[in-house]
Amino acid sequence: MSTAGASGITGDSYTVSNADKKCFEDNGFVLLKQVVTEQEMKDVIEPVYMKFINREVEVPGKDLCDMSGAQGRTPDEFTVYNVMLPRIYHPAWQGNVLEKRCKAIAYQLRGGDMHVDFDQIFAKRACSADSAFLWHQDAAYWPSLKSDTAAANCWLAVSNVSKENGCLRYVPGSHLEPQLRRHRPVGKTHEESHAICTDVDESAERVLDVPAARGDLIVHHERTLHCSYPNLSSEWRHAYILNLRKAACIAEERSLGFDHSHNTQLQWDVFHKWA
């Protein structure tokens, strides 16, 4: 199959062009247009996604949380509404067209043998100044492993995403830095915020904003520095994440007891390395 033209859907798969592959290699991220059609969004993604937003699917413990770091809020008050592992809590969602296309994309960008490690719902409440997600590298959240840790973080725009409502921002080429940057808890403790962050000097480092249309997919490398703006618009901003990694890497994680659930102690032990 030729990859000389534009990227695009090919049945349940998706072909990444040579230009987009090079963009990912050079920058550590790439915006892929219309990985999910509007009809597929309406029929496959949105109905299940909104069941989680409306709390029609039970999510135990800390796997439903507010990633803003605010304390004492009920889910009706969360400004960064986060659901960990929705495809585990709603198994019928597994194997859908988005997963198939993300697997094809990950294969093309990171090599073969890529599988879903975890998924996540991120929704930012309208008019929420505290819904910014601070600078970080995904790999800083995960334990050190002996296996190949190559990852493809596939970020689906479930709504149109702009600077005003919280689009992603990247430091191009930061995935090529030899070491992860030093991270720290966003709140006073890891348990308080469920999030970590690092420093980026925006006056000295090149930063790109990446708006996306509903159905677009942004794929980034596990070491690429990224963050997002707060949602200052009058409507919710919705996104869904599928993270794919090598089978041996996932197996090694699970052997350590690490499954990306916020209810798992090892998740907090990994955070504590940044204390």
TrEMBL record:
Signal peptide: none annotated. Gene3D superfamilies: q2cbj1_9rhob like domain. InterPro entries: Phytyl_CoA_dOase-like. This is Phytanoyl-CoA dioxygenase. The lineage of its organism: Eukaryota, Viridiplantae, Chlorophyta, core chlorophytes, Chlorophyceae. Its cofactor is Fe cation. It comes from Tetradesmus obliquus. It comes from the Eukaryota. It holds the Pfam family PhyH.
